[in-house]
Design goal:
Elements: H1 5-25, H2 32-37, H3 44-55, H4 58-70, H5 76-97, H6 105-113, H7 115-148, H8 152-200, H9 205-212, H10 231-235, H11 241-257, H12 260-266, H13 272-303, H14 320-328, H15 333-364, H16 376-399, H17 408-432, H18 438-458, H19 466-488
Helix pairs in contact: 1-8, 1-15, 3-8, 3-12, 3-13, 3-15, 4-13, 5-11, 5-13, 6-7, 7-8, 7-14, 7-15, 7-16, 7-17, 8-13, 8-15, 8-16, 9-13, 11-17, 11-19, 12-15, 15-16, 17-18, 17-19, 18-19
C-alpha cells in the first residue's frame, strides 16, 4: 500500500512530540547526579519499563519475528536464561551497589580494587559501547530505509538528531520517561500488525497453527536438546536448552550487572528494594515480549502461506516484517508501526548516549585536574558537553557503516561480545573473592579478553557460551594470580 502522507505526518508528529516532551520533563538539572542518575528519585516501575525499552533495539523488533519465520521458537530458551540472570543480579549485584553511594557500575570496582581499575574498565566499556551502538544505529536505519525509501544517511540522521536533543536537554529523567512511552508505542504498533494478520487469515489463529505444524514440522517447538556427535557440534549449535539457559544467564548477568547502559538506571532508583523490583519487572516483561515477537513471526509465516524467503524475493529474514509493513498495512497504521520502529531505536540510542556521557564524566573526567572541584552548575555544563560529543560520535560512526558489506560491522559486534565475560568475571572477583587485589583483577580481566580472542579466532563456539567462557577464564586467572602472589610473598595477603 506504500507510505502515505498521513503516515509521514504521524511519524513526524511522534518525533517532534517525544523530543519536546522529553526535553520538558528533564529540563531542571542542578547537578551531575540529577543529570545522570535522576537525583536517585526515579520510580521503580518507570525504571523497569525503561530497561525493557533500552535493551529492545530495532534488531529485536525486526529480527525476532524473522527468526521465528525461518525456524521456530527455540530462542525462548535464551529468554529463560535472561530471566535467571536478572534474578541473580538483583540478589548479588544490587545489594553490593547499594552498600555504597555508587555513581556508575565501575565505581564499585574503584572502591573495591582502586581507581586505576575503575578508569580502565570504564574505558573498555566506552570503546565497546561506541562500536556496538554505532552498529545498532546503522542497523536501525535498515528497516527505516526499506519502509520509507530514505537513504541510510538520512535515516540515521533523523533518528540520531531527535534522540540527541531530548537526551542532551533532559538527562536520565527524560531518557527514562520517553523510554516508558516508546515501549508502549512499539508494542502497540506490533500488536496492531498481528491483529491485522489474524483478521486477514480465513480461519484466524487456526491458520497460524496449521502452517506452523504442516509437513511434520513444529515451529512452536521451544526446546532443543542439541544435536551432533561431539562437544564441538554441541557448543556451535545455536539456541540449545543448556546453551540458552546457561549462556543467557551469564550474558544477562553481564549486561544488567556490569554494563553502564543498564546499571545507570538501576542506580537511579530510590532504594535497593526499588532497584530489585525494577529489574524483576524487566525480567518478566522481556520473556513475554520475546514470546510475542516470535508468535508474530509465526503469524507472518501463515500470512505468506509458508513461502520461503527466496520465493518472496528476500535475502534475509530481517526483511520479512518491513515487507509486510510496506505492502499490507493500511494508511495510518503503517505510520504507527514505523513510529514503533523509531521508538525501539530511540530508546536504545538515548540510553547509549547517556551511559557513555555518564561514564566519561563520572569515571574519567571528574578525576582530572580540570574536572576536580567543579561547582554543580559546571558539572551539568560538562555533563551536557559529553552528551553532545557522544551523540555526534555515534551518529557519525553509524554513517561509516552505510556500506552493508563493511567488515567493521562484524568486528564491532565481536568486540562488544567478548568484553562481557571479562567484565563479569572481574565483578565476581570483587564480590566473591575477598583476598584478590587490583593486580589479580587486571590479570583476570586481560585473561578473559584474550580467551575470547582465541575463541572467536579459532573455534566455532556459539555466542551463547562466550560470556561464560570469558567469565570463567577471568575468575580462574585472577585467583591463580592471587595464589602465586601469596606463595612468593605471604605478606601481600
Amino acid at each position: 500500500m506504500g507510505f502515505s502522507q498521513l503516515d509521514y505526518i504521524i511519524v513526524i508528529t511522534y518525533l517532534v512530540a517525544v523530543t519536546l516532551i522529553g526535553a520538558y520533563i528533564g529540563r531542571k538539572q542542578k547537578s551531575s547526579r540529577d543529570y545522570f542518575l535522576g537525583g536517585k528519585e526515579m520510580s521503580w516501575w518507570s525504571v523497569g519499563f525503561s530497561i525493557v525499552a533500552s535493551e529492545t533495539s530495532t534488531l529485536t523488533f525486526i529480527s525476532i519475528p524473522g527468526l521465528a519465520y525461518k525456524s521456530n521458537m527455540h530462542f525462548l530458551q535464551l529468554a529463560v536464561g535472561y530471566f535467571i540472570g536478572r534474578l541473580l543480579v538483583s540478589l548479588i549485584f544490587i545489594p553490593a551497589y547499594y552498600k555504597g553511594d555508587l555513581e556508575t557500575a565501575y565505581d564499585f570496582l574503584g572502591k573495591r580494587f582502586g581507581m586505576s581499575l575503575r578508569k580502565f574498565t570504564s574505558s573498555v566499556f566506552i570503546v565497546t559501547r561506541v562500536l556496538a551502538s554505532g552498529v545498532r544505529l546503522f542497523a536501525t536505519a535498515i528497516p527505516v530505509h526499506l519502509i520509507t525509501g530514505y537513504d541510510y544517511t538520512t535515516s540515521i540522521f533523523i533518528i540520531g538528531i531527535f534522540t540527541l536533543i531530548y537526551t542532551y536537554v533532559g538527562g536520565l529523567k527524560a531518557v527514562v520517561a520517553m523510554d516508558v512511552v516508546q515501549m508502549f508505542i512499539y508494542l502497540v504498533g506490533a500488536f496492531a500488525a498481528m491483529m491485522l494478520i489474524l483478521n486477514h487469515l480465513p480461519n484466524g489463529w487456526s491458520d497460524v497453527v496449521s502452517f506452523a505444524t504442516m509437513g511434520g514440522t513444529n515451529k512452536f517447538s521451544m526446546i532443543n536438546l542439541g544435536d551432533g556427535n561431539s562437544i564441538g557440534d554441541f557448543l556451535s549449535s545455536p539456541y540449545t536448552l543448556f546453551g540458552g539457559i546457561i549462556g543467557g544467564t551469564f550474558l544477562s548477568m553481564a549486561s544488567h550487572g556490569t554494563d553502564q547502559l543498564l546499571v545507570q538506571r538501576l542506580l537511579g532508583c530510590k532504594t535497593k528494594w526499588d532497584s530489585q523490583k525494577a529489574l524483576m519487572l524487566d525480567a518478566s516483561i522481556i520473556v513475554i515480549q520475546f514470546a510475542f515477537f516470535l508468535v508474530l513471526g509465526l503469524c507472518l509465516f501463515a500470512f505468506y502461506n509458508g513461502a520461503s524467503l527466496q520465493q518472496l524475493g528476500l535475502s534475509s529474514s530481517d526483511e520479512i516484517f518491513p515487507k509486510f509493513i510496506v505492502e499490507n498495512l493500511p494508511t495510518g497504521l503503517a505510520g504507527l508501526v514505523v513510529a514503533g520502529v523509531l521508538a525501539s531505536a530511540m530508546g536504545t540510542l538515548s540510553s547509549s548516549i547517556s551511559s557513555l556521557a555518564s561514564s566519561t564524566f563520572l569515571d574519567l573526567f571528574k578525576f582530572t585536574a580540570r574536572g576536580k572541584n567543579l561547582d554543580e552548575k559546571s558539572e551539568v555544563k560538562w555533563s551536557k558537553r559529553f552528551t553532545l560529543l557522544w551523540g555526534f560520535i555515534l551518529i557519525g560512526g553509524a554513517m561509516l557503516f552505510t556500506d552493508t558489506k563493511n567488515p567493521v560491522v562484524e568486528i564491532g559486534l565481536k568486540i562488544a561480545s567478548f568484553t562481557y565475560g571479562g567484565l563479569l568475571g572481574t565483578f565476581f572477583l570483587g564480590l566473591l573473592f575477598k583476598r584478590t587485589n587490583q593486580f589479580d583483577a587486571y590479570c583476570g580481566f586481560i585473561a578473559g579478553i584474550v580467551s575470547m580472542i582465541v575463541v572467536l579466532s579459532i573455534t566455532k563456539i556459539d555466542f551463547t557460551w562466550h560470556t561464560l567462557i570469558g567469565c570463567v577464564a577471568t575468575i580462574v586467572v585472577g585467583n591463580l594470580s592471587r595464589f602465586i602472589r601469596i606463595l612468593y610473598d605471604p605478606a601481600t595477603n
